[in-house]
Specification:
single chain; mainly alpha; about 0% strand
Length: about 190
């Protein structure tokens, strides 16, 4: 019986040592691998969240830019239409009459009002050119008005009419042509 007890103790010790050896060698590598997998899953989740965040931010920016660009294109089209109508009406004042003057006033007022309400969509360098045209239009309009004043002799009236016409033709039209090119560049982006 003593021998049986000794054998069973030896077997128990061998089993315990075997289990200990098994636990010592297998479980650490098992838990290391599980830890690596968990860390990898967490890393992948974090990277995926970051990618989705950047993607969402980019899509929002793209929509905002698209909306802004679309509005800007509409504003440029309408502004150009008003500007050309206003310059055309001022040209017609070279042979002044009251109806043409009213039309020139109306189209110039519409252009100025539209520009003031929508200039937020206009690039700064284009604003400078548009404002140069506005100044030329005002000077031309003043020249047309002076040419109508009673008591101004025919030669003086002719001088003011010619000055008004030349300001539009020689100063405003080249700026308008440059604006057309810049508008085309801007809208083709």
């Amino acid at each position: 019986m003593n021998e049986l007890m000794t054998i069973s103790n030896v077997i128990l010790i061998v089993v315990i040592v075997g289990i200990g050896f098994f636990i010592k060698n297998y479980f650490p590598s098992y838990f290391n691998e599980k830890g690596k997998n968990l860390a990898t899953k967490e890393d992948i989740a974090e990277i995926t969240n970051r990618i989705e965040s950047v993607k969402s931010s980019y899509e929002k920016s793209l929509v905002k830019f698209g909306t802004y660009h679309k509005n800007q294109a509409n504003v440029i089209g309408q502004l150009y239409k008003h500007l050309v109508a206003s310059l055309d009406d001022l040209f017609l004042l070279s042979v002044p009459n009251e109806e043409k003057l009213k039309q020139a006033n109306k189209s110039s007022s519409e252009f100025l009002k539209y520009y003031k309400l929508h200039r937020i969509y206009i690039e700064p360098h284009l604003k400078e050119q548009i404002e140069s045209i506005i100044a030329i239009m005002r000077e031309s309009y003043i020249d047309f008005e002076i040419s109508k004043v009673e008591g101004v002799d025919r030669k003086e009236k002719s001088k003011y009419l010619k000055s008004a016409y030349n300001k539009i033709d020689k100063l405003a039209i080249p700026i308008l042509e440059e604006l057309e090119n810049r508008f085309r560049e801007l809208l083709s982006v």
